[in-house]
Amino acid sequence: MILPFATQNEGKLNEAREILGPLGIEVESMNLDLAEPDRGTIEAVTMEKLRQVREMGFSRVMVDDAGIFFAAYPHFPGILTKRVFQGIGYKGIMKLLDGETRKAWFEGAVAVLWDGETVAFSAQTPGRLLKTSPDRIQPEPGFPFNSIFIPHGDHRTLSEMSAEERAHYSYRGKVLKQVARWLSERTEGDGAARK
């Protein structure tokens, strides 16, 4: 079964391939420029992206959206994560959290369009952010918060973990497994899924 993934993030594409490949789903890159809403929930953003892709004439696709949330600030940065980080960087993030709780969580959603049906799944990875000097942070391309995020139940940042260790905590991994189950229910009995 082939599932196109509309993302421009190589890290997300590779993670989807690692998780879905062994489950019989071949993830293909679909490079589309989609508008990202600046309000609403993570799940609502994925459904809006799905709407855009559907209007382009595609009948099978997967889209995703994710963000980090700081317990100190309700619903923030959330869907604005990328824009906030691009604007203020590690220095601004550390200032925002100075004197505040470091509790945070990643939340991600994946939405799928499959022959007229749509569905969205979401999950979270709870944890906390390191308190450190911005000039000591080694950014991870495509995932800037991995260098300062420690998942609940561990003492290391995501950047310090192997891919297998990260998978244990990954909200995206949880969501993609739900996607695989949902797709398998739709393709049982018709042999190979249509392209």
User: In one word, what is the shape?
Assistant: globular
Distance between the terminal alpha carbons, to the nearest Å?
8 Å
- Which sequence of SSEs, written as H and E, runs from N to C? EHEHEHEEEHH
What is the residue-mean pLDDT, rounded to a whole number?
92
Strand numbers in spatial order across the main sheet: 3-4-5-6
Helix content: 25-40%
Query: Main sheet?
Result: 4 strands, antiparallel
Radius of gyration: 17 Å
Structural class, by secondary structure, is alpha+beta
How many domains, in number, for the residues? 1
Uncertain regions: pLDDT < 50 for 5+ in a row?
Answer: 190-195
State the name of the first-level CATH class: Alpha Beta
CATH topology: Maf protein
Number of helices: 5
What is the correct CATH architecture? Alpha-Beta Complex
How much of the polypeptide forms β-strand, as a percent range?
25-35%
Query: How many beta strands in the DSSP annotation?
Result: 6
Protein name: DITPase
Pfam families: Ham1p_like
Keywords: Hydrolase
Family: Belongs to the HAM1 NTPase family.
